[in-house]
Amino acid sequence: MALALFFTVKMLMQGQALLTLGIVVAALVAVVLLNYATRKWLAASAVTLLGLILLLVLLPWLFGRPKYLYSDYFFFVLLAFLSTSGFYVYSKLHLRMTWRQVFQRKVAMGTVVVLLFFLVITFLDSIHFQPPLNTMAGKSAAQPQYSTQIVSVLDRVLGAMRDKDEKSYSAPFATRLYVKESIELPGGKIVREYPRLKHGGRHLQPGQSVAGDVASKALIAVLFGLGVWLLLALLFTLGRMLQKRCALRSAVLELFVERRGLPWHVALYTLLVVCIIAALLLYLSNFYHVFGTDKVGQDTLYQALKSVRTGVLIGTLATLIMLPFAFLLGVAAGYLKGWVDDLIQFLYTTLSSIPGVLLIAASVLAMDVYISNHESLFRTAAERGDVKFLALCGILGVTGWIGLCRLLRGEALKIREMDYIEAARAFGLGHLKVIFNHIAPNVMHIIMIVVVLDFSGLVLAEAVLSYIGIGIDPTMNSWGNMINSARLEMAREPVVWWALVAALLFMFALVLAANLFADAVRDAFDPKLRTG
Amino acid sequence: MAETILKIDNLKTWFDTSRGVLRAVDGVSFDIRHGETLALLGESGCGKSMTALSIMGLVPDPPGRIVDGSILLGDEDLTTYSEIEMRGVRGNRIAMIFQEPMTSLNPVLTIGEQIKETVRKHKRLKGPALTQRALELLEAVGIPDPPKRIKEYPHQLSGGMKQRVMIAIALSAEPDLLIADEPTTALDVTIQAQVLRLLKDLQKQTGMAILLITHDLGVVYETADRIAVMYAGQIVEQASRKVFFKKPAHPYSRRLFHSLPSLDKRDQVLDTIAGSVPPLTEEFRGCRFVARCDQAWDACAEQPPVYRRPVTGQSVLCHLYNKKIAATRPDQEASAAPAERQQAYQAATGTEEAGDAPLLEVRDLKIHFPIHKGLLKTVRGYVYAVDGVEIEIRPGKTLALVGESGCGKTTVGKGILQLLRDYTQGDIRFGRENLNTLKGEALRRKRAEFQIIFQDPFSSMNPRMMISDIIEEGMLALNTGESPEERARRIEELLLMVGLSADMKHRYPHEFSGGQRQRICIARALAVKPKLIVCDEPTSALDVSVQAQILNLLKSLQLRLGLSYLFITHDISVVSYLADDIAVMYLGRIVEQGPVGDVLGSPKHPYTKALFAAVPEINKELIDEKMMLKGDLPSPIDPPKGCHFHPRCIEAIAKCRELYPPASTGRHRARCHLYS
Q1: pLDDT of residue B351
Q2: In A, which residues are within 8 Å of B521 by CB distance?
């Protein structure tokens, strides 16, 4: 609380009156909701939202001046939506039981940890700010100057990778460049050889072997990862003990060994693997380029990690944009029938007869023209890239609602004939109320299944679109762009393979986790697959 | 004595479920002889169908498995047969027909192809001989004009026709045994009578044995030679028809008889069987019926009963007939309940008033659904679902609307409830207002006074809503003006009123049985304090014992709250128990109406007579061949000229083909030229 007050005062001093007002309003809303909301889930999500907003407003001030991009806002709305629906699901017994079925599968437990890991990276990469300029440091604290560059918290965490640019290609764990250069020896003689890297393996003594050094450093990293995991596991166990009011022994048994209930042990062991891999990558990247560098000497691992946000966002934002179309149009068509149905069917049959790629290419080009005509609106490269990215999400969403819309129309056609709809109408309920009280909860499982299944499809679609050059702005990191540039690298001799491999590895991890999770969700939600 | 075709000994079919082993069939033994019909009688979930599937070798494995016992067909044990060997038995020596003829036929093949398929497999016929055989079969099951019908698709046939086709397919290989799993449950009484008669005739011709699975005592009385009553995976009583209907021995069988509604029980509370069938995952120690039995004593809970034979040709699984154990039974006279019951409704029936102004008065109600065709969706004719119906319901009384399915009785109900406003014409006077001209807010407020209860207890509640939300919905929608606390109190009150406990309100519909769900639906309707409830076949999806509970509940609510019911049904025994007035509907019009006693006692209209004659009833003479209705209900798109009923009427005269008959006058009136 004191911290919040401190920041509020600080911000007031810095002329961020609007932000301050926002915080105060949010706090008031939360207090009102907490006191007067009859529904617990609403109150709980309000508090969570307030926490999220506070965090988002305050955290960047530790590093500089907050400067959020449009896609960030979308992502935070999505997070808010996720947490709210999480609380809602927990409050409704039948929903909670179905989700419990999802998590009773070991695969689901494992993949959810991996997905959460990707979500955390995205979250860190979505908190953007402008760092203060050091040149003015000595002058005046009251009027700090900020850089025009927009960086994220993730960039701060990965500082080691971000700043250590080389000159050109270098292989993973290399100490020398991958291309020959003319080097002037002290004697004035000029030789062509692979020059020593500026950062990678800098600390090595002459003659010291890379393998041995990496092995010893990897050991330290693994131990560190283990330590972090132990800490997390301890926190988790303690939380469980408090929640269940049980002894340490039974909590440990339940979480690490117990077969009954939810397979927590799978989650914990997956977390262990994730911790160790993260520690390895983070620690080793202080000394080496773990996945090499690209043509202009940027760390490939850094690029792959920055691409996580693009991948996750495109998978979720396109869905977020598509959902209202699909739900409202589909249910309206199925429930109201008649001319509404005819109109909506006409709309989607027309839309689906236009090739999607054509629409996407057209809209991306239109966005390009718009940006070049309104340069003043988008000052930084990051902002320009962001707007183009959002446009892509939008057009993927607009073209993507047809399939779900058809499914929902069919389901609504079926549900409208159920007796409980008749009963509701006998009570004089209006159409909107019938749709939201009776039809929506009964089609939710279809929406759930389609959304998680679509996610991985969209991640892959981004890669394909970027590859054919109508996807993300080239200045923005994405796996598609990495693969696109790898096209040339694969053709050169000797082959530069690491960029492609890095992009594929990360994409594979995300898509596989999403697909496996989608399977578990479908098994639990699809009544046709449910047995007994 | 004829030779035994099938002998089942100690059959046990168990299922592995997440809640443990489910003993669906647990030690069933019976045999069927040549030319005999054995009826397997029981409530839903007692293992009847599983017994049939076990005989056919169609138990889904896993999770199901036959753990013990033998199924002897002739002298071969079917339980030892492999899947390939079973294929030679299925359809060939044992054939089966199912409850739902709509889903048993493949919709994309003509019925001819489907019959030929089985004939080809089992009889190895080809070409013209094959077609000839298919035509013979269709002829044999009484389908008119087989050469034309053989090229038709299932959707072109009515339900009764489809069931006939199913029987034709089953008969194609001349099986020794026909298993009929509720063959007539989905059909109308008139069609049911035809199908049952057909089965009986075919049995006489071919001498096959029939295993008839049913829950309907009337059907059993009309068709069975012997009866086996199943309860919780066991056969509790086995007897010949004569013995069983004269003196049922097992307490369960007796209670089944008591719970049947009928005219002479009108003034009584129906006898019900408390509770429900115990979950078959349970380990049973004593008798399985002990918790619901009114004659149980300590021994029943402690040791399992064994079969005893009180009379020849009867075998009962009950301690009452085991002299040694029955001796331990403490002396107690049969409870005085019947006498009390007798009085329960006496007061009510005494207050017969004739001069009451009707609560609901329907005049010339027409509901015509337009048929849209062509590119521009122009109207090309109408479905005359309801075509000039006139009924009235007095306050606190029950009007029963009876008729075959498709005659428009449900449409009348929905029309009165203002759910089909776009298509409804005519006067629906409710109290002083005409519902058909009411609009907007006025109609919405009026909606509180008439509510509906549906047939299917499973689709009538939103599975994603809690019971309290379901009941509260109407109060909120109609804004009956209570505070949240009052509403919560009222929900509890309603749950108690319909015989549930108040702590059930936080549960979801799937946690309840069919009967309990129907109670909740009643509570939902009562929540807005209606004066009239349209009951759309509320008991036809329920078992007999549960049906009795719901009927009792409806009757007592009527007495307490002065409700009027419009009771839509095809079940004449329910009508005779519950209704005050009766209206018989045929093809969108009322053909006969009047006080229930008059109409049931001396039906006038030939259709009414035929309808009543078709109802299988205990202790009734078997149906007269002449009275049996021929054919199906005509289409309401193009009703026959003149009297709608004349093509099926045995008393039709020349005038009937020309002119729709006017209504006769008086309280008991019929629309028939014979009476005008």
Answers
A1: 47
A2: 423
| Chain segment B403-445, per-residue pLDDT in tens | 888 788 888 998 998 888 888 888 888 888 888 888 888 888 8
pLDDT, tens digit, for every residue of B445-460?
A: 888 888 999 888 888 8
The ipTM assigned to this model is 0.77
Put simply, the answer to whether A426 touches B452 (Cβ < 8 Å) is yes
Give SS3 for B148: helix
| Count of helices and strands (H, E) across chain A | 20, 5
Which are the contacts of B662, defined by CB distance < 8 A and separation ≥ 6? B671, B676
> Which phi and psi angles does B608 have, rounded to 5°?
-60, -45
How far apart are the C-alpha atoms of B56 and B96, rounded to whole Å? 8
Q: What is the least distance, in Å, from the CA of B398 to any CA of chain A?
A: 20
Interface residue of A419, A443, A447, A448 to substitute, partner B, most B CBs within 10 Å: A419
Closest alpha carbon to A316 in A463, A122, A503: A122
Please give the backbone phi and psi of residue A473, each rounded to the nearest 5 degrees, phi first: -60, 135
Q: What is the three-state SS of A448-481?
A: HHHHHHHHHHHHHHHHHHHHCCCCCCCCCCCHHH
Give all strands (DSSP E) within A76-208, no chain letters: 128-130, 151-152, 181-184, 190-193
Q: Which two tokens stand for residue A175?
A: 């100490």
Contacts of A433 in chain B (CB under 8 A): 477
Mean pLDDT (whole number) for A227-247: 85
> What's the number of CA atoms in the CB half-sphere (13 Å) around residue A89?
16
Q: Does B465 touch chain A (CB under 8 A)?
A: yes
Q: Omega of the bond prior to A494 within 30 degrees of 0, cis?
A: yes
For every residue of A364-422, DSSP letters joined together read HHHHHHHHHH-GGG--SHHHHHHHHHHHHHHHHHHHHHHHHHHHHHHHHHHHTTSHHHH
Report the first-to-last Cα separation within chain B, whole angstroms: 56
**Below-50 pLDDT ranges, chain B:** 334-343, 346-354
b/e sequence B144-180, b meaning 16+ C-beta within 10 Å? eebeebbeebbeebbbbbbbbbbbbbbbbbebbbbbb
pLDDT per residue as tens digits for the range A293-313: 888 888 888 989 999 999 899
Average pLDDT over residues A415-443: 87
The answer, for B464 touching chain A at a CB cutoff of 8 Å, is yes
Q: In what order do the strands lie in the sheet with A128-130?
A: A65-66, A128-130, A151-152
Residue B635: DSSP 8-state: P
The residue type found at B279 is P
Alpha-carbon distance of B518 to A255, in angstroms, equals: 43
Q: Which residues of B309-321 are buried (b: 16+ CB within 10 A; e: fewer)?
A: eeeeebbbbbbbb
Bridge partners of B12, per DSSP, are B26, B68
Tokens of B350: 């005494």
Q: pLDDT value at position B568?
A: 92
Shortest Cα–Cα distance, A329 to chain B (Å): 22
Please compute Rg for chain B using Cα positions: 27
